[in-house]
């Protein structure tokens, strides 16, 4: 929907697809979702189960927990804010100015969500505020290290920050090592943890690689510009900031484990089937993105596909998360003592990879995302398509939560509902176009997690 007039990839001219079809004797129709497509092609509606009524309210106890979390992360934001304010803002490059503007916008949005009674959404906002603020704080420290110690001082600072986050993540993984799964809700929480750890590890590796590039380029200024050296250093601290903040989110989700005491027998079949399916689907989506979008970038810039993929890794965190989670999935059996926990966490990583790969297809094809020089989404070519995609994603998330609620007698509902709150508020109270994609991803991951919980509950109920 919205693509009636689109570019012919062969001639690069805009054509009316409906009229083109008419000249070929083919009826062409714009459709908003898979159900509408099915009805158009077959003449009958796509059968679908009804959506079970589900209570999406959040208990007062859970609201209180998120208010406490908000306060803790607000203190982190204020600490970063003090570091930024002590620096000379006039020296900030435009990129840092932009990131700080978003940090403040996310903080203000979080305060509004907290006042309006959307505590999970408020925490999602303060998390984003901290991510941006801590990156800017690291950026100011990096510039100071560059002024006082030149490129060697700057590179030492970057290495120190990477080492600190690596140590932080390593200690956190050690704390997670003895996790146990006693209920389907525990399994859902471990899957969420895995979906976070996978990208975090990929971001750490990318940060280390960018730091190496900064070091090598600083030693060969006859071939590389000083601006390129500094850019690589900034990209390194950007990825390490994302990795550290993301991993902290994984530890927070440990709080869901142990709340559900419903008797349950472990079921490996649904885990293994889902792993195979999600891995295959993630690879398929990535292959599609590479064959269309990444290859187009390679052709336009006269580089090979591998070079274009490396560029995508640097500029699109969703691409790196999708690819990185696939590369990291086998490591979970080193992180956890219990192989069943490792398998569920691995499935979580594959779930995250699938969601990010699906988002890439949406961004670069279905909804035609427009990006700025930093790679962030600022608008969409096909806004109607996005609206329809979002509506379908929300409807399926509601359906999946209802099924999980019925299968677990409501035990899994609180964990699933908080992500729905964040999804809806990102959609309805967006700071930027990127928030729309965050909402879409949250709807998708909520659906996938709810379906996993339902299958495990049904498989292990006997």
Describe this structure as you would to a colleague.
74% of the residues lie in helices and 3% in strands. The chain has helices spanning 17-23, 34-42, 60-85, 94-115, 119-176, 184-218, 226-252, 269-301, 305-315, 317-328, 332-335, 339-366, 383-408, 413-428, 433-460, and strands at residues 5-7, 14-16, 369-371, 377-380.
Alpha-beta classification: mainly alpha
Major sheet summary line: 2 strands, antiparallel
N-end to C-end Cα span: 45 Å
Biggest sheet, spatial arrangement of strands: 1-2
If you average the pLDDT, what whole number results? 92
**What overall geometry do the principal axes of the alpha carbons give?**
globular
Please trace the helix and strand order, writing H or E for each element: EEHHHHHHHHHHHHEEHHH
* Helix count from the secondary structure assignment: 15
> Helicity, in percent?
over 70%
Question: Uncertain regions: pLDDT < 50 for 5+ in a row?
Answer: none
As a whole number of angstroms, the C-alpha radius of gyration is 23 Å
Q: What share of residues are in beta strands?
A: under 5%
What's the total count of β strands? 4
At a glance:
It is built from 15 helices and 4 strands. By secondary structure, the chain is an all-alpha fold. The strands form 2 sheets. It has a two-stranded antiparallel sheet. Strands 3-4 form a two-stranded antiparallel sheet.
List the helices and strands and how they pair.
Blueprint (H helix, E strand, L loop, with lengths): L4 E3 L6 E3 H7 L10 H9 L17 H26 L8 H22 L3 H58 L7 H35 L7 H27 L16 H33 L3 H11 L1 H12 L3 H4 L3 H28 L2 E3 L5 E4 L2 H26 L4 H16 L4 H28 L2
Antiparallel strand pairs: 1-2, 3-4
Helix pairs in contact: 3-5, 4-5, 5-6, 5-7, 5-14, 6-7, 6-10, 6-12, 6-15, 8-9, 8-10, 8-12, 8-15, 9-10, 10-12, 12-15, 13-14, 13-15, 14-15
């Amino acid at each position: 929907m919205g693509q009636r007039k689109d570019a012919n990839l062969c001639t690069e001219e805009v054509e009316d697809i409906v009229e083109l079809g008419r000249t070929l004797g083919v009826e062409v129709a714009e459709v908003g979702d898979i159900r509408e497509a099915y009805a158009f092609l077959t003449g009958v509606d796509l059968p679908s189960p009804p959506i079970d009524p589900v209570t999406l309210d959040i208990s007062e106890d859970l609201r209180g927990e998120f208010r406490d979390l908000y306060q803790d992360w607000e203190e982190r934001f204020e600490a970063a804010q003090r570091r930024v304010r002590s620096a000379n803002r006039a020296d900030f490059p435009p990129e840092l100015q932009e990131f700080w503007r978003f940090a403040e916008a996310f903080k203000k949005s979080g305060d509004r969500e907290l006042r309006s009674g959307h505590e999970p959404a408020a925490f999602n906002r303060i998390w984003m505020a901290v991510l941006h603020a801590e990156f800017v704080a690291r950026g100011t420290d990096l510039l100071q290290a560059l002024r006082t110690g030149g490129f060697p001082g700057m590179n030492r600072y970057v290495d120190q920050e990477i080492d600190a986050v690596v140590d932080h993540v390593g200690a956190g993984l050690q704390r997670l090592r003895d996790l146990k799964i006693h209920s389907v809700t525990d399994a859902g929480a471990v899957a969420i943890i895995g979906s976070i750890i996978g990208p975090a590890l990929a971001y750490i590796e990318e940060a280390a690689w960018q730091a190496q590039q900064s070091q090598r380029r600083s030693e060969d200024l006859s071939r590389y510009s000083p601006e390129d050296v500094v850019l690589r250093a900034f990209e390194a601290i950007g990825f390490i900031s994302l990795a550290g903040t993301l991993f902290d989110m994984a530890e927070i989700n440990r709080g869901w484990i142990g709340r559900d005491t419903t008797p349950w027998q472990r079921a490996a079949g649904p885990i293994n089937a889902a792993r195979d399916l999600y891995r295959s689907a993630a690879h398929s989506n990535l292959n599609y993105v590479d064959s269309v979008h990444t290859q187009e970038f390679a052709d336009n810039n006269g580089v090979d596909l591998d070079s274009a993929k490396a560029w995508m890794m640097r500029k699109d965190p969703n691409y790196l998360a999708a690819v990185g989670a696939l590369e990291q999935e086998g490591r979970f059996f080193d992180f956890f003592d219990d192989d069943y926990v490792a398998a569920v966490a691995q499935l979580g990583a594959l779930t995250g990879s699938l969601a990010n790969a699906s988002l890439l297809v949406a961004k670069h094809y279905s909804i035609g995302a427009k990006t700025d020089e930093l790679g962030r989404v600022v608008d969409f070519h096909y806004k109607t398509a996005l609206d329809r995609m979002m509506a379908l994603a929300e409807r399926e998330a509601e359906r999946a939560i209802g099924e999980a609620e019925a299968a677990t007698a409501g035990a899994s509902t609180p964990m699933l509902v908080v992500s729905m709150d964040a999804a809806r508020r990102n959609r309805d109270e967006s700071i930027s176009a990127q928030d729309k994609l965050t909402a879409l991803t949250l709807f998708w991951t909520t659906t996938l997690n709810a379906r996993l919980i339902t299958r495990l509950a049904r498989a292990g109920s006997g």
